[in-house]
Amino acid sequence: MRESILTIPVNEVFEPKCGCPICAMRNTVEDHISEYIMGAAMMEPDVRIETNALGFCHRHFNLLLKQNNRLSLGLMLNTRLAEIRSEIFEKKETIFTKKDAKLKKSSEIEKTCFVCSKVEWGVSHMLETFYKMFKVDEGFRKLYSEQEYICIPHYNLLMTKAEQFLKKDDLKAFYEATDKLAGDYLKALNDDVAQFCDSFDYRNAKMLHNEEMEHVRNSIERAIEFITSRKPDYK
Asked: Nearest to residue 54, comparing CAs of 119, 122, 123, 111?
């Protein structure tokens, strides 16, 4: 399949063959959106209307903080807080007559996120190209089968959406390849975590000191990432 402006970003997340490529796809879109809204777009009226209305989830607040542009984030927070005041706490109706409406509005605050909505849109469009590439490009199909693994959340996503884009033999081949990518890695990961647990037996006290056991030492972190699609965030 000839490379194009649509296929290049997809190839870029699959070519390293490291980790879950759909996680890499999401992270790439997520980083671009975060950089975009913390730059000049922060002052674009259409963007500010959306960020005022949707706000950000906890994860993406943390991601925006890492951009080291506290003024831009502060300006967005200022108008977001003003929006919350106006919509919930400064209405003329009393809290007794409109309690349910106020609670419904306040409960929605933590359920919406500007970055999440844009990432979902971006990944969805990249996946359309991904399925098309799998269907028509034997080279890409081989590249897909050579990935390190597909994490559980993205295994569910890919297997669920596949029937929208693939038919018959292509669908069967995709199911088999995806099942193998997730299943084989899960088996090896399960073995690594079991070895990690066994290392706490006094008879295996020095087992993890071996340089070749790095895959066992980091198995807890890898298991969390495989199950959740996110690397654990701790120091």
From this structure: 111
Instruction: Read off the pLDDT of residues 92-148 as tens digits, 9 standing for 90 and up.
Output: 665 555 667 788 888 889 999 999 999 999 999 999 999 999 999 999 999 999 999
Is the CB of residue 53 less than 8 Å from the CB of residue 111?
no
Amino acid at 52: N
Query: Nearest CA to 51 among 89, 84, 81, 80?
Result: 80
As a whole number of angstroms, the distance between CA 218 and CA 30 comes to 25
What are the angstrom distances between the C-alpha of 116 and each of 66, 91, 192?
Answer: 17, 29, 33
Map tokens 């879950």 to a residue: 20
Q: Cα angle vertex 63, ends 62, 67, to 5°?
A: 110
pLDDT in tens, 14-53: 999 999 999 999 999 999 999 999 988 888 999 999 999 9
Q: Give me the half-sphere count of Cα atoms (radius 13 Å) on the Cβ side of residue 154.
A: 23
What whole-number distance in Å separates Cα of residue 112 and Cα of residue 94?
26
